[in-house]
C-alpha cells in the first residue's frame, strides 16, 4: 500500500514538472506574454498625446474666444466713451521723435530758426518755430526773437505750415520740408496746436483753428505786404480750410492755400483709414465709430469749406498714400474746381505717381516740387498784386 502511494506521488511530481517546462509552442506564447504591456500602461500611453493635443486646442480656443470678446467690446467702449475716438483722431499723445528739445530747433539742423511761445487764449500757450529763408541764414545766427519778428517784413513770402496729427513741429519729415521751403526763399512759420508738443491746452477742432488764426494774424501784423500762404498737411488740411474759410468770410484771405494729402471730411477719412479695416464691415460701423467723432465736435469738413474759399488752391497728393486715400484728395479737387467761389482763382491738382514712393508724407522729396511751387505761387503773387 505504501509503495502504491509513493508511485502515485512520483507520477504526480513528474506531471507537475512536465507542465512547468514549456513546449515549442508554449515557449513563444510565454515570450509574447512577457513582452506584452499591461492593459493599464497601454491606455496611459495613448492618453498622453491625446491629452497634449486637447490641452493645446483648449488654449487656442480660449485665445480665440478672448480675442473675439475684445473685438466685440471695442465698438461698445468707443460708443460709450467718445473721447477715445477723439484721441485716435488727434493722436497728440504720440510724441515722435522722442527726447527732442523743442526749445532748440538747431538740434534738428535748423540753425536759422527761432523758437517762440504765443498765447492765443488765457491758459493756452503754443510753441512756434520761425525758419527764415536760407539767404538770411548767416544774418540769423545768434539773433534774438525781435530780429526774427522784424525779418518777416523783409521781401520774402511767408508760409504758415499746419502739421497733421501725431508728433510735433519737430517731426523728421516736417523739418525736411521746412528746409526745402527755406531754400526756395520762404519764411516758414509752424507751431504745435494746443495739446501737442510743448503747447499747453486741450485739443479740439475749434481750439486748433483758433490757434492757427492767432498765428496768422501775428504774421500779418509783421509781414507788411509780403504774400502769406497757408500750407496744411493731412489733418492739418482740415485746420487750413477751417482757417481760410474764416479769413475769407472776414475778407482777409491768404494769398494761396496749399493742401498736401487732404481728405474730404473726417468721417470719410476715418472710414478709409487703415485702422478701420478690421471694423469696416462690422454691423453699425457708422453708429459705433463715426458718430462718436461727430459727437465730439470733430468734423474737419474740407468738402464744405472749399465752397466758401476765395483764393488760389493747390492740392498735392501721392497715389500710394496709405493713410489718406488718393481718391479723397481727387474728390476734394473736383468739388473745389466746380465751386463758384473759385471761379476767379486757380485750382490745381498735382498727383505723384505710385512708383515715386512718396506715400503720405514724403512729397517734399520730389525734385519737381520747387518748379510746381514757383509756377503756382508765382501766378498767385501776380493775382495778389493785381
Q: Nutshell version of this structure?
A:
The chain has 386 residues and is an alpha/beta fold.
Topology:
Blueprint: H1 2-20, H2 24-35, H3 39-80, H4 82-90, E1 113-121, E2 124-131, H5 137-140, H6 145-151, E3 158-162, H7 172-183, E4 187-191, H8 205-223, E5 228-233, H9 235-249, E6 256-260, H10 266-272, H11 285-295, H12 302-305, E7 312-318, H13 326-337, E8 347-352, H14 369-385
Parallel strand pairs: 3-4, 3-5, 5-6, 6-7, 7-8
Antiparallel strand pairs: 1-2, 2-4
Characterization of the model:
It is a single chain. The protein has 386 residues and is of the alpha/beta class. The chain is 49% helix and 13% strand. It contains 14 helices and eight strands. Strands 1-2-4-3-5-6-7-8 form an eight-stranded mixed β-sheet, sandwiched between helices. Strand 1 and strand 2 form a beta hairpin. Helix 3 packs across helix 4 and helix 4 crosses helix 11. The radius of gyration is 38 Å and the shape is globular. It starts with a helix and ends with a helix. 35% of the residues are buried. The N terminus is likely disordered.
The counted number of beta strands is 8
Query: Main sheet?
Result: 8 strands, mixed
Low-confidence spans: 1-6, 15-21, 27-32
From the N-terminal CA to the C-terminal CA, the straight-line distance is: 155 Å
Q: If strands are numbered along the chain, what order do they take across the biggest sheet?
A: 1-2-4-3-5-6-7-8
Oligomer: single chain
Q: Summarize the amount of helix as a percent range.
A: 40-55%
Strand content: 5-15%
Q: Tell me the structural class.
A: alpha/beta
Number of helices: 14
Mean pLDDT figure = 87
Compressed to H and E, one letter per element, the order equals: HHHHEEHHEHEHEHEHHHEHEH
- Gross morphology is globular
Report the radius of gyration as a whole number of Å.
38 Å
Main location: endoplasmic reticulum
Domain AB hydrolase-1: 157-251
InterPro entries: AB_hydrolase_1, AB_hydrolase_fold
Organism: Catharus ustulatus
